[in-house]
Amino acid sequence: MGAEQYPTVRRRVLGANLRRLREDCALLLEDVADALSCHPAKVSRIESGRSGIRALDLKALLDLYEVADPAAREGWLALAREGRRQRWWRDLADRLPQDFLDLIGLEAEVASCLGFQPSIIPGLFQTEAYATAVIRGGTVGPLDEQCRTRVRVRLDRQRVLTREEPAPMRVLMVIGEAALRQEIGGRRVLREQLLRLIEIAQLSNVTVQVLPFSAGAYPGGPTPFSIYGFPPPSGMEVVSLENFTSHAYLERAQDTAHYGKVFADLRGIALSPIESEAFIASSAKELAGRSSCAPTPSQPPRGPTDSRTEEPSSPVTEQPNRAAE
Predict the structure, then answer these.
(1) Is 171 helix (H, G, I), strand (E, B) or coil?
(2) Of the residues 37, 119, 151, 197, which has the maximum number of CB atoms within 10 A of its CB?
(3) Beta partners for 176?
(4) How far is CA 188 from CA 130, 197, 286, in A?
(5) CB 89 within 8 A of CB 149
């Protein structure tokens, strides 16, 4: 199987785990190449994720690395196996950036997601109206084809929360209070979004915590991130970081450990799940009450919880790659 210019996150995770097994056995690339009767460069490509691996070669490596447990072996083969079923996003490959395709594929394979989103409701929880408003970025007029595709993908990604096979992804999300206050799409859209957020939080595999303004300064800063966890036998984690144009993926153990600690600290200062549900419900109730006494457009906003007109006078601008969230 030839090397790929853009290795998927899934292949990089598999390769990193195979490298770990090799190093645990104190073997060199040349030793593994001899066992596979191939050039060491092929082993290097597999470990870097730039080349896939055949099931026959993987079984030979598992023998070499003394992975004998049948369940563990099947787990490794499942991690390496190319999906034979048609993936729903494949027909969009020419319309979405590679790093975003990686994100969709990652969510389809992982068992868990620990996320922090300080200023916007995460994409996995968004309603269609809210997602549309975010993707519009404050513009008006009919949606073009690209925007419609982005809305469709955002909603389709939410299948991971209720899928049957594999098991639904476990999600633990810390959301900043700013996300509950920014009236993206107007009060009605935001209120419906908050009510939807409460519904999703009732799922047994979803936990939502709110980081209130009163928490003050918090660890990690305002950068959104997600920590995705693969199921056994890998158990490996991948950190996804958002920036203005793309996603970056961190797979080194020291990076995942760092963000794991940041996330644990954020959970510690955030409201509990029960307190968070009450906080979100209160915010939704405030929006309903303020709808009937909104100020005229000439009245300037006085703070994050003050009344505003239904359509903000200053457009809410989305970061270009927020389609991923």
Answers:
(1) strand
(2) 197
(3) 211
(4) 10, 14, 11
(5) no
